[in-house]
Write a structure and sequence with these properties.
383 residues; alpha/beta; two-stranded antiparallel ribbon; 13 helices; 12 strands
Length: 383
């Protein structure tokens, strides 16, 4: 008994959620065509009765129905902002809608399989982790960045440090956070970002770092800086119940991008991966947020042109290091709030009493309405 034919899947990321459709294999089409061409077959008779009746295909959705007599077309490749048919006889380009010269976020197509096919063998090896672990709403805008020379040099360095893919990095690797968590921040969909909190280095103690700045996994003691963050939050929102854990994933799920400037560190060696390329990469992440952060947050208006591109987010820059990362951002488009770092060494020199959490929500509500606010007081990891 022959095994059933497996269906292939192509994924096109048109929004911050994955939209899957199943693509039939060429042999399926050939078999179907063969059956329909047999004399006396039911499909042949149906075609004679209703020659114009046909199913609407995925290709029709993108390009419209074919003209009569048109030959079979090959699979369309998706790259950048264009959809291009690879038939030798024609080239079809679909131009995505733009707003003020910027492509709308939901109109930027991306095929992960096509991106992988465009890489050489070394790039496939070095960028395995990015393809596996980076959120696709981010990857479609950072795909060109991660193929640049500086980033590939960074990945060669990390390879020597023991970092591989999300699931095949050796347990003996002494780099934090674990490979699978390096891009945990990108699980917050780009179009839903409301606030960006910028950290510096991941925690360099065992089990502490998990890809979100200032946050630690459940079961790990709350770090001193985070205790000061909780203290400030309690002062601004008296109803806030200080949790016994330091896990901030609820914030990440609520549109808060918790981004370290440097995304990895060697165990017990603070700053050991600085100036290797992460700073340039996370600067690009900030640039992407500048363009598309909050693009899919409803403002309660019917003005479609106000959606699809970034209309502004809140940047919380605590400490001189973080302030430097946001100094070039527009202060008319974004709200940038700066203060001392929440570290015990500096918290009393401007962090405690800065009022940032309330100021952020007041600005967000004025920009996006009540739904734009962040529920800072909810730190339930299951939320």
């Amino acid at each position: 008994m022959s095994s059933p034919v497996k269906e292939t899947e192509t994924t096109v990321f048109l929004e911050d959620i994955d939209s899957n459709y199943k693509a039939r294999k060429p042999e399926d089409d050939e078999q179907s065509a063969s059956q329909s061409s047999q004399p006396g077959s039911s499909s042949s008779q149906e075609q004679k009765k209703a020659p114009n009746k046909r199913q609407r295909t995925i290709e029709d959705m993108f390009f419209g129905p074919k003209k009569a007599g048109a030959g079979p077309s090959k699979k369309a490749k998706l790259s950048g902002s264009q959809l291009t048919d690879t038939s030798p006889s024609k080239k079809i380009t679909v131009t995505a809608p733009k707003t003020s010269g910027i492509l709308k976020l939901n109109s930027i197509p991306f095929s992960l399989s096509d991106f992988k096919e465009s890489l050489n063998e070394e790039q496939k090896r070095l960028l395995q982790l990015e393809c596996e672990a980076m959120g696709k709403s981010w990857l479609k805008l950072l795909k060109d960045e991660i193929t640049k020379g500086y980033f590939l040099s960074l990945k060669r360095f990390l390879w020597e440090e023991g970092v591989r893919g999300a699931n095949d990095t050796p347990k003996s690797c002494r780099v934090y956070p674990p490979a699978k968590d390096i891009y945990a921040w990108s699980k917050s969909p780009l179009g839903k970002i409301k606030v960006v909190i910028i950290g510096q280095d991941p925690y360099h103690g065992a089990g502490q770092a998990h890809g979100l700045c200032f946050s630690v996994p459940l079961g790990i003691a709350v770090p001193p800086s985070l205790r000061n963050i909780y203290q400030e939050l309690k002062a601004e929102y008296p109803e806030f119940e200080v949790p016994k854990h330091g896990n901030l994933t609820a914030w990440a799920s609520n549109g808060v991008l918790l981004l370290n400037t440097c995304l990895t560190v060697r165990a017990a060696d603070a700053g050991s991966h600085s100036n290797r390329g992460w700073e340039q990469f996370t600067d690009k992440v900030v640039d992407v947020v500048d363009r598309y952060g909050g693009a899919n947050i409803s403002s309660g208006t019917e003005d479609s042109d106000s959606n699809g591109v970034g209309r502004g987010v809140v940047f919380l820059a605590w400490g001189a290091w973080a302030a430097k990362r946001v100094e070039k951002l527009s202060t008319t488009k974004h709200l940038t709030l700066k203060s001392a770092h929440p570290s015990p060494f500096s918290a009393n020199r401007g962090f405690i009493g800065n009022g940032h959490f309330k100021k952020a929500n007041e600005w967000l509500e004025s920009k996006y309405g009540p739904d734009g606010r962040v529920d800072w007081c909810n730190l339930d990891p299951a939320a």
